[in-house]
Design a protein that fits this description.
Length: 442
């Protein structure tokens, strides 16, 4: 059975009233009352309907509350100081320069053992070369003056041979450029050439020694004493500190540096010359000179370039004295160079997809904030690493959207990884909007 219609009932009432012969004034009053009632009902229903429509429109179109972000900062990894494999035998001094943003303008100095004066054997020939070239410089790329060897020079071969020193043929009357004579003195360590060249340069042994004393004093090499040009005398001594400076002076002289880097050379007269420094070309070694007076006195003055993967290679100058054998000393130098090279190392910073935050919504949708890619940074030793994070609010909250970055810095080096949204936040359903006005109001 259907509900009665109020308007119909009022109409019926008027009809009854008219049939019953009711007073016309009363009928008019009743009609006015009914009309007002109808208007009121219509207005109320219209307002109610408008309110419902308005709410639905508002609820379906009201701005949604922003997702709530919860993030954390990435901690910078700790770095450890490099460990250098300094030789355990004798005494060692090493200077490492280059990469000034990491090592500083003066580089790094490494030492082991004491700084006392020790016999330097054939390293003396480097000093002889420096003193000779100080008096008779050779322009870069030139060969210098010509030497003519006398019978006295030729006789030096036998004098040094019987002392078990390294020698090279020097025929009487033969000629050679100063550069080639120095090469014969330094590459196979021919002592007869060291004697002949030093005498040629200054006229006598005593004049050579006087010039050497002046040179050493001028360069501040107070811990070095030279009594003859070859190193066969154990009284030719120097300290690791002085030898480090001598090595730097030699490396800065183009003629000596080029000769010291030569593994083999063939010349008229002495024939094929083979460098006594068998480390040349290994581990970045580029020079300079070996020396020994027997077991326990092996010495090496060396230069090397060490590629670190960061800019220009490092320049290494070093000396190690008092090695038990050539093999043990060479192995120790290679270990040392490897450890210097390892001073620059890759520090892992973060793995790909590392979670650093999340986004949550009032309607239950979520997404994550991750570091998009793995990152590492190449740096020196224990250089501190700093971390800076820059995060912006997502605009779409879609999977893969970039919302910032993380930057790591160590000295002059830096690297950056993007921050991205993982997962997509979908909008709520219409039903959720209609049933959660409080959340829409914020």
């Amino acid at each position: 059975m259907s509900d009665p219609d109020p308007q119909s009932e009022l109409s019926d009432l008027f009809e009854v009233d008219e049939q019953d012969g009711a007073d016309p004034a009363l009928i008019a009053a009743r009609r006015r009352l009914v009309r007002r009632a109808l208007i009121t009902v219509t207005v109320v229903m219209t307002v109610a309907l408008a309110s419902i429509v308005g709410y639905v429109f508002w609820a379906l179109n009201a701005p949604l509350p922003s997702p709530v972000a919860n993030t954390r900062s990435l901690e910078a990894p700790m770095t450890q100081a490099a460990t250098f494999a300094l030789p355990a035998e004798g005494a060692t001094a090493v200077a490492v320069t280059g990469a000034p943003d990491y090592l500083g303008a003066d580089g790094v100095r490494l030492t082991a053992g004491d700084d006392g004066a020790r016999s330097i054997a054939s390293i003396s020939k480097v000093i002889t070369a420096l003193v000779v070239l100080d008096a008779h410089p050779i322009a870069d790329g030139d060969v210098g003056p010509t030497l003519t060897f006398s019978k006295a020079d030729h006789d030096l071969y036998d004098q040094y041979y019987v002392q078990d020193a390294a020698v090279a043929e020097m025929p009487t009357g033969s000629t050679m450029s100063l550069r080639d004579a120095l090469a014969t003195m330094l590459i196979p360590s021919a002592s007869n050439y060291a004697d002949a060249v030093s005498t040629w340069a200054f006229g006598s042994r005593s004049a050579f020694l006087s010039a050497t004393d002046d040179y050493l004093a001028r360069e501040g090499l107070t811990g070095t004493t030279i009594v003859e040009p070859t190193g066969i005398s154990p009284r030719n001594v120097s300290t690791p500190t002085d030898l480090l400076r001598i090595g730097q002076l030699a490396a800065a002289n183009p003629t000596i540096a080029r000769i010291a880097a030569t593994t083999d050379l063939t010349l008229p007269g002495p024939g094929t010359l083979t460098n006594t420094n068998t480390l040349l070309g290994e581990g970045g070694v580029t020079g300079l000179k070996t020396g020994n007076l027997g077991e326990g006195t092996f010495s090496l003055l060396f230069t090397a370039t060490v590629d670190t993967g960061v800019g220009e290679p490092l320049a290494v100058t070093g000396v190690t004295l008092g090695g038990q054998s050539r093999a043990s000393q060479d192995a120790a130098v290679l270990r040392l160079l490897d450890s210097i090279r390892a001073g620059f190392h890759d520090v892992p910073l973060v793995e790909a997809d590392t979670l650093i935050g999340s986004y949550t919504t009032a309607w239950g949708a979520t997404a994550q904030l991750v570091v998009a890619d793995a990152a590492s940074l190449r740096t020196w030793s224990d250089t501190p690493i700093m971390t800076a994070t820059d995060i912006t609010n997502p605009t779409e909250y879609r999977d893969g959207e970039q919302v910032g970055s993380v930057t790591w810095t160590a000295g002059p080096a830096h690297t950056t990884a993007a921050l991205r949204v993982r997962g997509t936040i979908e909008p709520p359903t219409d039903w959720w909007r209609l049933t959660h006005p409080a959340e829409l109001l914020g």
